[in-house]
Amino acid sequence: MLRPLSPTLFDLPSMVQDKYRTCQTMCFCGLLPGIRRAWASIDNSLFLWRYDKSGDVPVEYCGEEQAICAVGLVRPRPGVFLEAIRHIIVLCTTTEPLPMYTVPSDNVIMTSVATTAAGRIFLGGADGHLYELQYNAADSWGRKRCQKVRLTGRLQQLLPSFLPSMFGLGAASAVHKVVVDDERHILYVLSQPHATIQVFDLGHEGTDPAKKVSELSDFYQAAASATGGRDTFRNPASDKKAAAIKHITPIARSESSKLHLLVVTADGRRVYFTTRYMRSAYFSQYAQPGATGQATGGDGRTTKLLLSSRNHTLPLAALNVGTMGGSTPGLREMLTELDNFVPGEACAIASSPQPSALGPEVQTAGAQEELIAQLFLPASRYVLISTAGVVELEKRRPIDILVRVLEERHPNRVRQFFEAYGAPEAAAMCINIASSRPGTYPVDAVREAIAALEEPALVGEPRMPEDALLGGLAGDVGGVRASAANGGLAGGGIYMGQAVNPNPEPNWSSAHRGLCLYLTRLLAPVWDMHITTSAASTKAKGADAGSSVLHCSFSARTMAALIERLHCLDMFLTDFINRRQQQGYSARYSPKQGSSISFGGGYAPSAGGLFGPAYQEEMQNGGMAVAQQAAKRQRLNHAAQLEDERTSRTRALAAKNLRDLVYDSDGETVAAKLISVLITQQLDNAATSAGGAATALGGAVSGVEEVAAMLQKNCPSYFKEDDRAFYQASAKLKAAETAPNASARAALVSDALATLSRVPLACNLEYLVSQLAYLRCYEGIVDVPLRAAAAADPIGAALRPEAAGAHEEAKQRRRAAYQHIFSTLRMLVSGEGNPGAAAGSGPDAQKGLTSQERASFKSALLKAAFKSGDVFFLECLYDAMIAMGDATTLLSSDPPHLERFLAEHSGLATATGFGSSVVYLPNNGAPVGPLNRRQVQLAELLAKFHIGKRRFQEAASVYAALASRRSGPGESAVGLEERVSALQAAVLQAKSVGNSGLVDKLEADARLMSYQAQVAQRLEARRSLLGPESEEEASELGRQASDLATGLRDVSELYNDYAQPYKMWDVCLQLIDFAGSAVDAALVRQLWDHALLAAADHPESAIMGDSTSQQPSMLSPPLGRGIGAGLTARMSAVAALVERLGSQFFPHEASFPATHVAFRMEQVAAGLWPTAHAAATTAADGYKGDAMARAMLGACHNSLPAALRVYELLLARRAPGVPEAELAQVRLKVSLLRSLAHLCRAAQAEVVSALVAPGLATADGLALATGMGQGRAAGPQAALTLAHREAGNLADACERYALEARRLGDAEAEELAGVFDAVKAAAR
Question: Which keywords fit this entry according to its UniProt record (predicted)?
Fold first, then answer.
């Protein structure tokens, strides 16, 4: 198990022996394996010498007069000493300080020195206290260059150093040993003779002040109370001396996660402690014993070695090594008594650190289990110094034991090894041996390892589960088969058969599982490491200062070691598989003859061994491979700095580890991008070289060939022959940038495109499109990505919706290729960025494009794109252009399949697949939708497309479909205003067609939809006025308003379910006018009465609905003043309602009974109606304004004869539906005459205008003035004649009105008669 590295023991140097003979005070010796030195202190002299070289002359240091009592080695804290100083030696004397960094010992003899990885120094004193030696670069305020701080003693720390010894306050037990657990940052102090163990916490990082957290004062009692302790520690009275503690040492995490400290007694018993301390919660830390065992010691003249370790790393019982085991959970201890005897009495033993094959950035293999560490670390070495000399020992690893067993060629011992370690574990070690570099292991061992991997008796055979059942290989399977043959299970049960796995996996052989285990351990140190690390850029300046770049996390040594192992394994597996294929499948079940390991047959490798001459030659050139890998790592470092989108990509790359690079779907993409940047750099360097285009072309091609050859050799999984062709074409494109003339450039580009068309999937489209954009190769920008998209979807699944899941996946792959075309187009449309600037290296690379150049570039690019026969690409292109806001260009270009795209994606058409004709959904069919905002946008573009084609009827049908579409949640909701707007647009397009029937239908729908919108607005307004107590009513109103928004309703439904129940009288009248059917005149008059009453009672809300623009009134300003704000407000509200509704209905008497409406208005003005106001109103209180005349004139579309005719019928008491008795009232007649006076004055103005300028005044206006005109005059003279005739008619009418006024005998009537006389005089 242990073997000495030298055949003889290295004696202590003669200088040391001579000095020892004259020793007067004390002498000590020990080991400093960190610097490969042994040391001995004799009195005041310190000797250091190499323990691995015989005859090495020691270095002697003689200090002051006092003897040296302790020695330690520490790596200093950074920044204190010169960088060249890697270690410092700590010397402790009894009293006097030594030179350089010194501090007085205060009469305390230091008995132990312990150092930490952080550079801290702890001293254990004979006074029982723990000290820390603190050192700094120089003295400063509040901090000395070197000082000694006592960590124990509490109150004694406040007293002068000489007082505790004078008054006997010193500690009873001297410190015997101080040890540090650098993994857990815990410090242990052992004090003798009372065997006290103190525990100190150094904080999470090991830099906090030491804090005492626990103390074990009765070791024997604690050990006896532990698991298994009563049998080992039975008699405390007689066992105290033998149970004295001789040694304490921390237990590495790799050995146990629960046990932390090992204590060894004088007679070899071992006690394991665990420490449980929650730093964040400040719980007390305590020590708890664990497993114990027993062993015998030496005889005083020689030293016998005992090895304690975890059981799976120990040699086998078959190797004549005795073992004893403990059973405590947490550490499966195996104790081995070794056959090695060292002369003299042992003084110290220490492990010698071994260099790892991996770099320092990787987790140290020595901190792992030995089965894992043996892949990267050589055998562990230990140095022992005794009174006779120094010897260096090497502990055999499990793989070393296997090599020894294989060299013996003993079948039983090989089988025992496989049984002891398990077949997969042993097979993994055989693979390690068989795939090792030549010279690492003996050739015989390599040959036998290969034979063992092919021996079914050792590693088994891969079989399917049903084969295992037939062969009866497993005991449980055989048992099931035997029971089934007997008709049932053991014990009389009924055999119900075996469950069938529809996707069975083979029962892999142990060789296969061993290979997986070997690969797992080989890659474990770097598997979860980030492949890059961030570092501040030293070249960043200005705004870029402080930016970070990425560097490869793996050192050249790590990469070289792993690549060498993987390369060796690849060659071994290739040879192994080839030989197995040559042997045939049946050979797997037929053992071969001739193997030195015979299990009834076996396999003997050829005389040439596993590795042929080519491999031997290649491995001899390993230094070159390492250099190539180092160069690759440097290029990859630089490649990360050249990412086009630095921020997002560096963050994504920085988060990647090796596992992601291998397993994630985008791992290959990341690797391809790194390779792309690497070769792009090579191309840029070649293109910028002097010597012209030919030199640039040659340099680019040769540089790419060199890098491509290296990449294809070292990473074939990521760099294939197609990649090589792509980068050769890229080199030609790079050379074309500096071509001397257009013909040379065109030839290079054409040649490159021909190559790229053969390997579209290998193209780095992002960089390639940028190159082609710089070269203004519009066809190439479109052609290469389209070829890549087609190659990514070879079966055309993107064009076949019936392909289900494959259809969507194929569409995504195609879109990824199309995006590179769209990104170029996006820069041209937005004006942001310069296509080709990222790849171009010529003088115009960073020069921006003018608006004219951008327009020309975009036009040429779209022309090339529209030529494509890829329908899915065209649809994606149209979608992208619409998203860019460039729909105008799209419509004006009239590209192929645009109508199909707009119709299908807007939801207004259906198609059975690509190539079928578009079928528009008819407007009178089922409504489409719901449609989202994008679909609505596409539908509107479809309508504009038809308008551009002068297909107005199709455009009208699109708008009609939008108006009638179903409403949905969220962005699919449709407002009634939006429906009205769509219908109005449809009406406009239908009028362009000249289809009167379609126009009438669409206009009717638009009008009815506007009424429906008005109802919905009224419901919402009413709901908003309700309080919390009317929650149910508010909910019902909201529901009804939402229902109205879903689509067009029937006119009867609007009237019966909404307008009439909710007393929307004006809407009821509008719906009656819209219906146009025969309606009872009494009902219409009643509705008008309700509407006028509502306006009079609520004048503040009388004017509702959409306002309509009215022509300016021809009436003069009011003749008199109103009686008050109340009547004036009511009159204004009534007049406004009449003017608004009358103008909509005139001249339809069925919906606008003008005489009845005028009658009610005059009643309101006279204070006779409503009845509630009549009793409180006198004649003097009546309304004296012209609101009634203005309202009637506006309702009659400013037609004076129509308005005069209404009032003449009322004055003559011939108005239909108006009671004659009410018309006979004097107050009402006065009000009627007042309105007539206003109308006559308006007619007078028209007549005067016609007489003054007969050519300008309209004859129609004159005829309208009196209602007696005969039409438009043919010329100015005829117009003048007509004006004179109409003036006479007006005078006659005013004479009649004046006579009627005087007949009333009322003062106001007499005043109105005067007005009529004045008008008559003016007319004549």
Answer: Nucleus, Transport
**Residue 686 contacts residue 706 (beta carbons within 8 Å):** no
Rounded to 5°, angle at Cα 551 from 643 and 79: 140
Query: Cα(441)–Cα(183) distance, rounded to whole angstroms?
Result: 34
Q: What are the angstrom distances between the C-alpha of 256 and each of 260, 274, 352?
A: 7, 10, 21
Question: How far does CA 1001 lie from the centroid of its chain?
Answer: 53
* 544 burial type by CB count under 10 A (0-12 exposed, 13-18 middle, 19+ buried): exposed
How is residue 629 written in tokens? 């890998």
Report the number of secondary-structure helices (H) and strands (E) in the chain: 48, 30
d(CA 739, CA 260): 72
* Helix or strand (DSSP H, E) at 40: strand 37-42
For 750-789, how does the pLDDT look when each residue is reduced to its tens digit (9 = 90+)?
Answer: 998 998 888 888 888 888 888 888 888 888 999 999 999 9
**Separation CA 298–CA 340 (nearest Å):** 12
Tracing tokens 């996946």 back to the chain, one arrives at 809
Helix, strand, or coil (residue 365): helix
Query: Between residues 959 and 657, which one has the greater pLDDT?
Result: 959
Q: What's the pTM?
A: 0.55
- Are 1233 and 1211 in contact by the 8 Å Cβ rule? The answer is yes
The encoded tokens of residue 1236 equal: 């007539």
Tens of pLDDT, residue by residue over 960-1002, are 989 988 888 888 899 999 999 999 999 999 998 888 888 998 9
Which residues have CB under 8 Å from 1077's CB, separation 6+? none
> What are the pLDDT digits (tens) for 1109-1140?
333 333 433 333 334 457 888 889 999 999 99
3-state secondary structure 928-954: CCCCCHHHHHHHHHHHHHHHHCCCHHH
Is there a contact between 953 and 989 (Cβ–Cβ < 8 Å)?
yes
The DSSP secondary-structure symbol of 712 reads H
| Burial grade of 502 (CB within 10 A; 0-12, 13-18, 19 or more) | exposed
Backbone dihedral region for residue 55 (phi beyond 0: left; psi -120 to 50: alpha; all else: beta): left
